[in-house]
Design a protein that fits this description.
The complex is a heterodimer of chains A (about 120) and B (about 110).
Chain A: E1 4-7, E2 10-13, E3 19-25, E4 32-38, E5 45-51, E6 57-58, E7 67-73, E8 76-81, E9 90-98, E10 105-108, E11 112-116
Parallel strand pairs in A: 2-11
Antiparallel strand pairs in A: 1-3, 3-8, 4-5, 4-9, 5-6, 7-8, 9-10, 9-11
Chain B: E1 9-13, E2 18-23, E3 31-38, E4 45-50, E5 55-56, E6 61-64, E7 70-75, E8 84-92, E9 105-110
Parallel strand pairs in B: 1-9
Antiparallel strand pairs in B: 2-7, 3-4, 3-8, 5-6, 6-7, 8-9
Classes of the chains: A mainly beta (about 120), B mainly beta (about 110).
Chain lengths: ~120, ~110
């Protein structure tokens, strides 16, 4: 199946700094990628939809100035958490749609664990 | 997306079949039933999907009722590695359609 990678797999940063998380589709092109956040013992919460070459669409309640999303190519989307605070500590997961060969499946990355101290 | 309802947790003995139910009574005609699972601290993994016919792959079987208002995911011989949270989702099958996760079913496979 299609592979989606995330980098880094975990990161610890100090409060007030910014952190960039990369999401790559390794063997397919993805015009649409999605970003999720997951707190302990909770389900995944969709944060935003990332479209190649255009602005991201954010879900209600997600601050677009705090969570900057850039989808510069068909294989890379980045999420930057600006001025991170301890409450931003979470598991961030991306997904990408593979429409190759008439199939349309969404594949998920392994996640990035962010801890803000 | 239509809402789905799943039991919050289930246990299954190792080696036995695990049958995970899902209700999706408001599913639309063009919406598919998808199943994903998430093992602790990993990203979700695609398992199987179907529209109205029963489906089987190397991981599981999906049984969809004739009226499409409910479905069952079957893991034929559960192993300890199948312990995970299983999510039933209904969605239109397009590249831009979101996957919205509910709380899912936490399956514990017991030795």
């Amino acid at each position: 199946g299609a592979v989606v990678s995330q980098h880094p797999s975990w990161v610890i940063c100090k409060s007030g700094t910014s952190v960039k998380i990369e999401c790559r589709s390794l063997d397919f092109q993805a015009t649409t990628m999605f970003w999720y956040r997951q707190f302990p013992k909770q389900s995944l919460m969709l944060m935003a939809t990332s479209n190649e070459g255009s602005k991201a669409t954010y879900e209600q309640g997600v601050e677009k100035d705090k969570f900057l999303i850039n989808h510069a190519s068909l294989t890379l989307s980045t999420l930057t958490v600006t001025s991170a605070h301890p409450e931003d500590s979470s598991f961030y997961i991306c997904s990408a749609n593979s429409g190759a060969g008439g199939r349309d499946e969404q594949y998920f990355g392994p996640g990035t664990r962010l801890t803000v101290t | 997306d239509a809402k789905t309802t799943q039991p919050p947790s289930m246990d299954c003995a190792e080696g036995r079949a695990a049958n995970l139910p899902c209700n999706h009574s408001t599913i639309s005609g063009n919406e598919y039933v998808y199943w994903y699972r998430q093992i602790h601290s990993q990203g979700p993994q695609y398992i199987i999907h179907g529209l109205k016919n029963n489906e089987t792959n190397e991981m599981a079987s999906l049984i969809i009722t004739e009226d499409r208002k409910s479905s069952t995911l079957i893991l034929p011989h559960a192993t300890l590695r199948d312990t995970a949270v299983y999510y039933c989702i209904v969605r239109v099958r397009t590249s831009y359609d979101k996957v919205i996760f509910g709380p899912g079913t936490s399956l514990s496979v017991i030795p």
